[in-house]
Structure formats: structure tokens, C-alpha cells
Amino acid sequence: MQDASTQEGISRVTRQPMVSVVIPAYNSSQFIAAAVESIRRQTFSDYEIIVVNDGSPDTPDLETALQPFSSKLHYLRQENRGPSAARNLGIRNARGHYIAFLDSDDVWLPHHLSEQLGHFGNDSTLGLAYANNAQIKNGEYLHDAFDRFPQRGPVTLESLLEYRCVVNTSSVVVVREALLEVGLFDEEMWRCEDFDLWLRLAERSVKMTYDPGVQVVHRLGAGLASDKERMKTARQAVFQKVLAKMTLEPRQVELVKVKIRDLEKEIAVEVAKRHLRAGSYDEAFAAVERAKSLKPDMRLRLAKSGLRYCPDLLRWCYGRYLELRQSYRHKSRAVSRKKGQQIDLA
To answer: Which residue has the higher pLDDT, 109 or 328?
Structure first.
């Protein structure tokens, strides 16, 4: 396959499609064929597919995986600049009135586009629609996103800030012009860039809605503790940006300040856990002290005492807790109606 600068070997229909599907790809050769195939299986067919290779180290394997679809998609390449830049490149090259996002390791259910576009057909003022998703790990169902994060009320700046509405990017269909008006994704952000964009759209009063039906299968990664720390840090940076750049009502200012402070504590807790696992007790103690100074609670007081008087025992107990929690989660998935089932992503 060739990159977008030459377009050799790439076929694109000449008629303007209604929807442009944008897929950023980085280290995704294992999953991308399933993602593209899930688009091909849509009951709605007036779309184009744009895959953006974000300087992926597995480019040869990625292009091999995409080869069966080469005449059906638009393939772009860029140096590794992160997911924001990759999606923005896709948006700028898109020809559809609507943009639909799909991460390269997720898949759509066949009715996704038709269901989402139905919302736009029912409301000409709508700017963005998102939907529920089934979350899986290693092919095994965990839960529906809306069960874990129930959506409450209309989608507004405040409901997004309060997490009363939580948007999954792979379920989003949005009017392209609305994205252009707010400046697309912030290319300085490599994490939580989507949360930042939804907030900016809401600030501009772009009307949003959500569908409670499951339309996407979202693949969760390994969930390393280091990822939690980085994600919380990135989310805090979004709130700091909101505070610095948005015109907020007084109650919204206070809300954002509380979120920043809460995340500061959560980050300190993650730092403490990281140092505890590594046996760096002095650093863990300092992080617990930091978290306790922000918002004390009983667990932090117990952790502080454990680190002071019996750090090795605390470390063993924490490791054992993680093992038992993982075992419990694995067993609990096997008992409910959906849990334990294998989801076919081929």
C-alpha cells in the first residue's frame, strides 16, 4: 500500500459519502482487519474508510492486514505524532458530512451507523451522537459501559465535567463542520484528547445525545498501574486547561477546582502504590503524606501507619490483595448471563 502523498494503488469512490470513518492506527496490525471488517458489515453503506498510520512500528504487518481492503479505503501515513494528529489528518482528508471514529482495536456492531444516523434524521439540530459499548478483555465480556457509568440527563458541559455523561470515542458520530469550528483535537495531548474535544464542543453549545443500546465492542488493554497514573495526570491536565481557557460560571469553576484537587490526590495514591510495589518505602510514604494532605481518609491513615511500622508486611498484603481481586473478577465474570462468554471479533 502507498501513503496519501501518492495515492498509488488506493481506490476511492468519487461520489461524496455521507459518513467518513476515521481509524488511527498504531501497533494495531493484530486487530485492524476486524475493525475494518466491522465497518464493511454495516447495514448502512454510504461511507468511506480512512486509516491513518501514525508512524506505526508494525507498518509492514499493518499494511499486510489492510491489503484485502486496499480498494475500499483511503490510507494515510504520517510520522508518529499521536492519536490527536492522526485523527485530525483523517478529518482534514474526509469528504463526508459526518465523521465517525473507530479505534483500531474496537469493532462496531452491524447496526451502529444506521442507529446513530437515525438520531440525526430525527433532529436536524443535533451535532454529535454516541452510544453504549460492551467492554471486553482478552475476548471476554466484562460489562456494558453504561452499567458502570450510567448516563444521566442531557449532555452538557457540566454533565461532562461531572462524569454524568461519559463519551466513548469509537461510538461517536459527529458533524464534521462542528469539529472544524472548535479546532479539532488538541495535538499537544496524547491522552484524554477526546475528553478535551467533547468539552470544547459542549462549550460551543453543540447539541449531543446518546443511545443506551450497545453498538460497539470496546477492547480494554492490560490496565497497568502506570497507565492509570498517566491517565489521571492527563485528565487533570484537561481540567486545568478548562479552568485556564473556558469562560465558566462560578459553580463550574468550583466544580473544576474540586476535580483537579481530587485527581491530585488520586495521582498521589497511584504514585504511592507504584513505590510500594517496588519496595521504595520512603517514596511511598511521601506520596501517602501528599494524598493525605489533600483529602485525608481512613485508608490513607492505615497506609501511613503500615509504611511507618511494618512496610514489608504492607507490601505483601497489597500484593496478595491484587491477586485475590484479579481472581475474584475472573470468577465473577463466569456466573452472570453474559460474563464468561467469548466474543467473536473476527
So the answer is: 109
* 103 and 144 housed in the same domain: yes
CA dihedral 92, 96, 99, 102 (to 10 degrees): -90
Cell 501497533 sits on residue: 27
Number of folded domains in the chain? 2
- pLDDT, residue 343, reads 52
Q: What angle do CA 214, 193, 183 make, to 5 degrees?
A: 110
List b or e across 57-74, with b for residues whose CB sees 16 or more CB atoms inside 10 angstroms: ebbeebbebbeebeebbb
Are residues 343 and 140 in contact, defined by beta-carbon separation less than 8 angstroms?
Answer: yes
205 sits in the region (left: phi over 0; alpha: psi -120 to 50; else beta) called left
Query: Does the model's pTM come out above 0.85?
Result: yes
Q: Taking the CB of residue 135, how many other CB atoms lie within 10 A of it?
A: 19
DSSP 105: T
Locate 106 and state its grid cell. Answer: 474496537
Question: Residue 120 falls within a domain, yes or no?
Answer: yes
Question: Both 177 and 272 in a single domain?
Answer: no
| Burial group, residue 175, by CB count within 10 angstroms (0-12, 13-18, 19+) | buried
Determine the structural domain holding residue 316 and report its residue range. 225-333
Confidence of residue 338 (pLDDT cuts 50, 70, 90): very low
The per-residue pLDDT of the chain, averaged, comes to 90
Q: Which helix (H) or strand (E) holds 252?
A: helix 250-278
Degrees (nearest 5) of the Cα angle 313, 315, 318? 110
Same domain, 210 and 263: no
Q: What is the CATH number of the domain that holds 159?
A: 3.90.550.10
The residue type of 197 is L
Residue at a domain's end among 219, 246, 272: 219
Amino acid letter, residue 195? F
* Phi, psi dihedral angles at 151 (to 5 degrees): -85, 130
Q: What is the mean pLDDT of residues 292-303?
A: 93
- Within a domain: 179: yes
